[in-house]
Every structure is written in structure tokens, then in C-alpha cells.
Write a structure and sequence with these properties.
With 276 residues, the protein is an alpha/beta fold. The protein has nine helices and 14 strands.
Length: 276
């Protein structure tokens, strides 16, 4: 299956300043994550014959041109089951069809399969395309990046689910990860990237837990203790990520968190932990 990528400049918090749209197959092609109109994307879409338009999730830097390409190509618009209203609010388009885990969308002579990958956003999915000889490419949206990390920000982001999605991809037979931001991840780097991102999140979780055990209570205080880098321009994202970590730790019983203040679980203050 032909897989083409077009990176489009768009307002985004991603360091690249761009979001990548993907065209999978041809006549009909599946267009994933059109962030905005661009001459190159217009030309490629016309050449490939867009029959379907869909998105990995509803964040603004992924959906800005859904209406344009759906209208121009009279394409079928797909959205996540149970998320039609959210999709319409984000895109201005009422979806024609709904997908769920395992749904297949026709793409030329092949199909594109939906893979549930929530966590970064509750509706987040990937799209798996067979490129021949069993080599699967996964359009993974904001699940993974080749360098750096992905924001998993409360209240939308769910850290427990995000880690599960990374572990699922690690277990899949994927030869290429096609992220929305940054370069393609290929071969052995696919599993290595999933492993790296899980390890990064667990290390941040350790710092968050230790900050609470040391007496930090608010998300801002925990953030100050858990990050050792300059957060200028991304402080809001860091605090929202800390909240997502606190929500995960609270569900697991490692800390207490009421949405405003955190405290150690019984017997887990720093002093008590050091005497164990």
C-alpha cells in the first residue's frame, strides 16, 4: 500500500511547528489528520483520489482541514464510536461512519485497520496499513515521537491508559511508526521508542511520588520538585502532566489526590519510607 506523508505548518505546541497528514492507498485513499490546507496536500490528494477522511484524535492541530478535504473530494468522514458530537465540535463536520477497534477502511487494493491507542486523548486511535510482505506501518498520531516525549495532560490525558497503549504497540508487529510530529520511526527503533517512552513516564512518576512524600501538595509544588529543567513556555503542560501522574498514582493507591492537593498514603511519608 502506498503511504505518503505531508507535513503542514500549523499552530501547534509541538516543537516541530508542523503536523503531518498521511495518505494511505489510492483510489480511494484514506486521508488521516489533515491539519490545514496546503498546496502539496491538495495536489497529492487530487492525485491519489481521497475517498475517506479521518483523524487519530480531535486536537486542533490534527483536524483543521477535515471539512475542506471532505467537501472537495466528497469523501466519507469517519469518527470514533461514541465520539460523533465531539468530532463535529472539533471539525465542523458531522461524521458519515463510525469506527471502533478492528474496523477496516478501504484504501485502494488494501484496507486500513483501526487500532485503539488512547491515553494522549480518550478517543485516540492509530491506523495500521499493510505495506506489502507483511511490513505494517502504524499512523500513530500523538502516541509516540522519535525524540523527546508526548504530553499526557489531565483532564483529557490518562497516564495509565497511555502506558498500556505504548505497551500494546511494543507487542505488535509494526515495522514503521508514522507520528504526527517529527520523523518516522523504523525497524528495531519501534520497540526501542515504546520502551523509552514508558521508561520516561515511569521515571517522571517516581519523581512525582517522591515529591509528594517529601511534602509537596499542589500540582505547582509537585511540578517544581519533579522537573529539573526550564519550563518557560510549557509550564501549563508540565503541570497538567503532573496532574495526570497524580491521578494514576491515586488510582493505584500510591498517593492521595483530591484534584487540588496531594498527600502520601498512610505510612508513606519520606520519614516513614526511610525507616522501612
Amino acid at each position: 500500500m502506498d503511504v505518503s506523508r505531508v507535513s503542514v505548518e500549523v499552530e501547534t505546541r509541538a516543537p516541530t511547528g508542523q503536523t503531518s497528514a498521511y495518505l494511505l492507498g489510492s483510489d480511494p485513499a484514506v486521508l488521516v489528520d489533515p491539519p490545514a490546507r496546503s498546496d502539496r496536500l491538495d495536489a497529492l490528494a487530487a492525485e491519489r483520489g481521497v475517498g475517506h477522511v479521518t483523524v487519530t484524535h480531535h486536537h486542533p492541530d490534527h483536524v483543521g482541514a477535515v471539512a475542506h478535504y471532505a467537501d472537495r473530494h466528497d469523501a466519507t468522514v469517519w469518527a470514533r464510536v461514541g465520539r460523533a458530537d465531539d468530532f463535529e465540535s472539533a471539525t465542523g463536520v458531522s461524521p458519515d461512519r463510525a469506527f471502533a477497534e478492528g474496523t477496516t477502511v478501504p484504501a485502494g487494493r488494501g484496507v486500513v485497520r483501526v487500532v485503539d491507542t488512547p491515553g494522549h486523548a480518550p478517543e485516540h486511535v492509530g491506523f495500521a496499513a499493510d505495506e506489502g510482505a507483511g511490513d505494517a506501518a502504524l499512523v500513530c498520531g500523538d502516541l509516540a515521537v522519535a525524540e523527546g516525549s508526548v504530553v499526557v495532560a489531565a483532564p483529557e490525558g490518562d497516564m495509565r491508559v497511555y502506558l498500556t497503549s505504548l505497551r500494546r504497540v511494543h507487542a505488535m508487529r509494526v515495522e514503521r511508526l508514522l507520528p504526527a510530529h517529527g520523523p518516522t520511526v523504523e525497524g528495531s527503533a519501534v520497540r526501542a521508542t515504546a520502551t523509552r517512552l514508558v521508561a520516561h513516564r515511569l521515571e517522571r512518576e517516581r519523581r512525582v511520588r517522591e515529591a509528594v512524600e517529601a511534602g509537596a501538595a499542589t500540582a505547582a509544588d509537585v511540578c517544581d520538585a519533579a522537573y529539573d529543567k526550564d519550563l518557560t513556555g510549557v509550564r501549563d503542560l508540565a503541570e497538567a502532566t503532573v496532574r495526570a501522574h497524580l491521578e494514576k498514582l491515586a488510582v493505584e493507591g500510591s498517593v492521595r489526590w483530591d484534584g487540588e492537593r496531594a498527600r502520601p498514603t498512610e505510612g508513606r511519608s519520606r520519614g516513614e519510607r526511610e525507616t522501612e
